[in-house]
Amino acid sequence: MDLEIISQLPSQPADLPPILFIHGAFTDAWCWDEHFLPYFADQGYPSYAVSLRGHGKSKGELLTASLNDYLQDVLQVVETFGKKPILVGHSMGGMVVQKYLANQHPAQAAILMASPPPSGLMSSISYLTMTQPFLAWQLGMMFGTGYASAQTLQQALVSRELNSEEIQRYTPHIQNESWRILWDLSMGDLPLPPRRSNVPMLVLGAGKDAFFHPLTSLWTAQCYGANHHTFQDLTHAMMLESEWQTVADFSLQWLDRKLLLSKNA
Question: Model-level pTM?
Answer without folding.
Answer: 0.92
